[in-house]
Every structure is written in C-alpha cells, then in structure tokens.
Amino acid sequence: MKLPEGFLWGGATADFQCEGGVNEGGRGMSTHDFETDGSVEHPRCTTYRLPDGTTGEAPSSFLNPSDIPDGATPYIRDDRYYPSHKAVDFYHHYKEDIALMAEMGCNVYRFSIGWSRIFPTGDEDTPNEAGLKFYDDVLTELEKYHMEPLITIQHDEMPVYLAEHYDGWSSRHVVDCYVKYARVLFERFGRRCKYWLTFNEINAVRGFVACGTHKCDNQTHYNAAHNMFIASALVVKMGHEMMPGSQFGAMYASSELYPATCKPEDVFRRLQARRETLYFIDIMARGYYPSYSADLLGRRGVTLTAVQDGDEKILREGTLDYVSFSYYRSNIISTETKNFNVLGGDLNPYLPKSDWGWPIDPIGLRFLLNEYYDRYQKPLFIVENGLGAIDKVEPDGSINDDYRIDYLRSHLQEMMKAVCVDGVECLGYTMWGPMDLVSLSTGEMKKRYGWIYVDMDDKGNGTLKRSRKKSFWWMKDVIATNGGSLWEE
Length: 489
Known about the structure:
Blueprint: E1 8-12, H1 15-18, E2 47-49, E3 55-57, E4 73-74, H2 83-86, H3 90-104, E5 108-112, H4 115-118, H5 129-144, E6 148-154, H6 160-166, H7 172-189, E7 195-199, H8 207-211, H9 218-242, E8 247-249, E9 251-259, H10 264-286, H11 293-299, H12 311-317, E10 323-333, H13 362-376, E11 380-384, H14 402-420, E12 426-432, E13 452-454, E14 466-468, H15 470-480, H16 485-488
Parallel strand pairs: 1-5, 1-12, 5-6, 6-7, 7-8, 9-10, 10-11, 11-12
Antiparallel strand pairs: 2-3, 2-4, 13-14
C-alpha cells in the first residue's frame, strides 16, 4: 500500500484567509474585505464614502450599479474587525510558512493569487507590478525547496469594483477582465507553474461575487455560472497555447450524499440532488451541457439568457485536464429534506461529528474518488480536506491534536484504497490548510485546521508565532513513506 512515485503532498490556502497585507503593495479592495468576523454571506457593500467625504448607508436605488455616484467607494467601518485585512499575515511570513511545509516534506503548495493585488479594480489596462513581484517571490521560495505551485486563479473573490459596477459574474465584461488577468499570470508565471485551477468551488457561486449588488436568485446564479464556465474554457485554451504541458482543473465543492432509505423515491431524489451539484463540473470536464440540464433548470425556473453564439464551441475547446475537489463531509437526503444545497442535506445518524457539527465520513471519500473517476475518466486531485477543531496549547507549548491525526489517518487510508485497490488515478492531496487561517464559513480563528499553529485569536490579537502541532510530525512520516506509515502503525 504505497502511492505512485511523484504523488503530490501538500497544503492549500486562499489569499483572503491567510495573506493579509490588505493596504500594502498597491492591492485594491476585494469582495471579501467587507466581511466582518462571524459573517457567513457576502455582504452588499451598501455603506459608502461619498465624494464629499461623508459616509452613510446607500439608498435602495444603489441596487442598480449605474446609480452609484462617481467617486463613491465602499466604506470600511472603524468599529468592526475585518479578518481578511490581516488574516495570518502570510504576506510577511511566507518564507517561514513555506520553510515549515518543506520541513514536513511537502512537494506542492496550493495557493490563490489575489485578483485585486494584480488589478486593483479589475478594469485597469496594465497590472500592478508590486503585486506580481510578491507572487514572484513566493514562487522563488517554493523553488528553493523544490515544491510545485498549484495556483488558484480566482478563489471566491474579485476586485470589489467589478462586483459593484458590473454585477460580478452576471456581466460578460467580467469574463474579459478575467481573461486579461489570467493572461498576465501566464505571461509572468507560466514557466514556473504547471498546475492551475481556474476557480474554487465552482458549484458554490457565492452571492456578491456572482451577482454584485443584485439579489442572487436562481436566474442570476445560473447565468453567472454560465459566464464562469465560458471564462474558464477561454483561459484553459489560452493556457494550453501559451504554456505547453500545463494542466488545468477547477475546484468542485463535494460531499457524498446517500439516500436516507432504500425507498425508491428517496433513491431518485438522491439522483436529482447529485445532478444539481455535478452539473457544474460535468459542463467543465465534458465541454457541454448535460442532457438533464433542461429538467434541472426548469425545476428552478431558470432561462439561460447569458448564452451567446459561439459558446458551445468555447466550452468544447476548453475542457479541464483533471478534476479537483474538496471533501469534508457527507449527508443524507430524502423526499422530506427541506434544506438542500451544495454541501447540504440531512445529518447521517451513523456518523460522528466535528466540533462544528460536520459529519465525519472517511469512506465517503473513497466513494467519491471512484464515482468521479468512473464518471470523467480524468485524473483527480484532492485539493481540500481537513478537520476544523479547537486546539489547546499545553503549558509546555505543545498541541496534542490526536483527533486531527485520527481524522487524517482514516481519510488518507480510504484515499489510498481508492488508488491502490480500486485503480483510481489521483495526482495528489493538499490539506486545508497547512497553517491555521481564518475560517471562511464563520470568520473565526478558533476553528483551526493546520498542522502548524498560529498564535492569533478571533479578533486578530496574538504574536502570529508559528509552532508545530503533534500532527505536523505525524504527517511528516506519512509524506516521507508516501503513505506507507499509515499501514505500519
């Protein structure tokens, strides 16, 4: 039970959850910069600094981007804490963080480039050189330790200007801005990076990014997603032309979903629900809308008005090279399920739960690996998996996170069974995240994921000192043996 030579082991982060440096290096404001601690949804940026210097709540007419006064800018309040502004300060600690990952033996690091660090508003003609240099320096550090970069081009965010003035991915203009942005990345970093992700969690198209200042109903959501499909396909084709040998994926937020009973109606409801989430990656991996699209969109009252002449050809020519996904949990579904979404469904009574109530289901990962490989016949890449938990620092400074070790051991063993027994082709595994970072779902620091502890609390207080948890040393053995130690234990 050993993985193939060249298997990629590492960690994954997002710029707004770890980077910080929000006012440095010419970075513009990102859509995540207006989320306060504890927020879950992307806000409507309705508090503005007006051209005369005054601030106030925007009138309802501002829901139309054309009604935003010239010179008005979204306003950051002094009495609130915004986690993305500081995060865990990777911007100033990247050398230390990469060195710690290298000490573990990691040979890949998945990170995202902040769009607003390259194009502060997204509408500029020329990129911000200081932003490009920062990521040049990050890549140089990775090369020092022979670590592959896995770059996410857009991770749930965009320059806030594009969200407010063009309604984000609701606009075809944003497709052009994204292609321009990607071209700059390929020109600058293309010789140094083989693996790319066009989007993160494409099936979780989040409100403010997708719909700008408008309400993100089903109609807006699915048409925004179509524009993202087109943007991805254009960029994949361009990347292959500019960087021969490059490999492209798009990250899909996945959870296994079981029928609650063997009642035929529940089994069929499971089929429908799976299609609602697989719809996104089906289109990007296969290059066309699946046969069930009409039924799915019809049940949701959606007409695809964003489709333009030539889009079918674009999708065909820009399919993904590999399928990447996150996996944290599984759920069950029946005809009685009320709240189904990307990671939703009902709780499985047979599974234990994390500190945040997420079901823990290692076998579900093996199930998904087999399902996706059977469905797409393309290499897979697990680019997010991990346990959010409350870690206790002992008087001697140690963090004995045996619960995280148990979680990882069980999931990695199921991954290895899928590869070594079932014959699934898997490129690698990047845990979320290698160091503690700000939680997307809750805005907290106490929900910790890393092998590496970061001394910071929910309000940004702390020394930012990095220290190794017990899981750090355990994972170092796993990587050194290419998974063999999981069975020797």
